[in-house]
Amino acid sequence: MIEQPLILYIPGLLPKPEADIHRDALLRCLLAGIRRLDPEVADDIGSNPESFDTVSWTYDFYGEYRDFALDAASVVDVIEQPGAIRLDINEATSTIRRLGRWLYTLGDMLPFLIPHVANERMELHLRDLRRYCRNDNDIAEHTRQMLKIPLRAASEAERPILLIAHSMGSVIAFEALRQTSHDDGPVVATDLFLTMGSPLGQRYIQKRLDGRDEPGILQWPNNIRRWINLAAVGDLTAIDPVLADDFIDLEQQGLVESIEDRPVFNYFRLNGHLNVHSEYGYLVNAETAGIVAKWWRSVT
Question: DSSP labels for 95-144?
């Protein structure tokens, strides 16, 4: 008998709503996308409360929650919209966004330029990123532990695991999976690793990954069967949208069956402004829905 599969989601930086409220909004977006493609799978996931869970690490990191009322109407709007319209596509591919990507890429390659090109939002992002990378007050290790606990529990119960990681959550997940690959704890087997809007392609991140200085395969996770990476057009966090070439060692050493990169259009709008990095927009996307529905059918 196959145990109940688990879709486990870990978000990125910035405060998030309270855990139950956040989980409900994320699941509503995911199920809305799946229901358009495979209503039976959507009903199956929706009727099993233990099939979807989140790792709510941001409150420990920031000490505050985001008021979901700020996002509620926009979440409803993105759920009701079946896909990106021409306006969304035009904005995502605009000259301004292409220039922004060029500046972010330049800053990643030449870090000394960052103070000259960074806006206030980027400065705040870098502040939080540095805090994590320095492991201030053991915050990075604490965060990784919050993910490892449910991963180990699900793996010990022989539940198939789909780990979805958005933005900085993909860095946390990658590091946690590497640690569980080589420590003395129970084996963790992740059937599918789905990253969205990931900064793992950034040189800044790659140079600071936990375990990067370990010899040979010790620097890599060996418990991911397949890895799919989604990068929204115009997403400045995923300035390098192709991860397969950056992590080719995992495939060459037989540590993962495949790493696949797919572009998407994220059409989430907050107060009318397009946010191509939004977790809600990624989860409701038809590409995400197709991946999750196909995986669910393969393990049930």
Answer: HHHHHHHHHHHHHHH-GGGHHHH--HHHHHHHHHHHHHHTTGGGHHHHHH
